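Cross-check.
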Amino acid sequence: MAQTQTADLSMEARVGRANQRYSDRGERLVSGVVPVSPDRYYVLVIQSTRRGGWVLPKGGWETDEATAADAAMREAWEEAGIISRVTRDLGAIPDMRASSQVTNQAPRALYQFFEVAVEREETTWPEAHKRKRQWVTYPQAVQALAGRPELLEALNRSSVLR
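Predicted model, tokenized:
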């Protein structure tokens, strides 16, 4: 499953949901990555732009992207500035929010995460002006992602060393 990022890397992040894919049940299809260091001791997290704190790179799978992995690697580039290679499909993760948290602006989502090997970290990337990134250990990642059960599930499915 070693799929490497090959698309042209735009310095402009995609915005909006006009080209967003949805499941047959109306769930927004979201793709994301768990970037793991070569020694599997660290995971890369990025600053959230909406909630503060730290998250994993993720975002909507769009209609012009052939696979969820393509979308995940684009999100990794836009949000974290990494050139990556998919090493493992971590599977589908359902939205774990309470029904009261689901709105028209934040519809229920179905997440598809991939473990990736980071081939390069660029110094400039589309969202560098609004996000920082940092490598953290598993315990630090668990603490950072505590409020996001879907991200914790992706982390726990990865091969990062506990």
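The first strand starts at residue 3 and ends at 4. The two ends are 24 Å apart (CA to CA). Passed to J.P. for a second look.
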